[in-house]
Amino acid sequence: MAIQVIMDRSGDSRHYFDPRDSEAVAKAERRFKQLTGRGFTAAARTSNGDSRQLRSFDPAVEETLFFPRLVGG
């Protein structure tokens, strides 16, 4: 089971999907495109605990984290 974790002001929300389910993958890809289109950064958590930025949706990634754009002031 794969997961997309969306971080925001209220904490986080988690969306699980089965990478073998084409409908669930399509929904997860729409969510990825929607969030990155709104300025969120997508990152994959690696096996050693680090992360790497994702520029496109990859259904094989087990855990994708979405961070909102930071705004300085």
Radius of gyration: 12 Å
Low-confidence stretches are none
| Sheet/helix structural class | alpha+beta
CATH topology type:
Ubiquitin-like (UB roll)
Count up the helices.
Answer: 1
Query: What level of helicity do the residues show?
Result: 10-25%
Q: Give me the strand/helix succession.
A: EEHEEE
Global outline: globular
- Strand order of the main beta sheet, please? 2-1-5-3-4
Assigned CATH architecture: Roll
Q: Main attributes?
A:
Ubiquitin-like (UB roll); globular; 38% strand; alpha+beta
Short description:
With 73 residues, the chain is an alpha+beta fold. It is built from one helix and five strands. It has one domain (2-67): Ubiquitin-like (UB roll) (Roll), CATH 3.10.20.
Description:
The chain is of the alpha+beta class. Helices cover 22% and strands 38% of the residues. It has one domain (2-67): Roll (Ubiquitin-like (UB roll)), CATH 3.10.20. The protein has a five-stranded mixed sheet with strand order 2-1-5-3-4, covered by helices on one side. A hairpin with a 2-residue loop joins strand 1 (2-8) and strand 2 (11-17). It is globular and about 45 Å long. The termini are far apart. The model has no long low-confidence stretch (mean pLDDT 93).
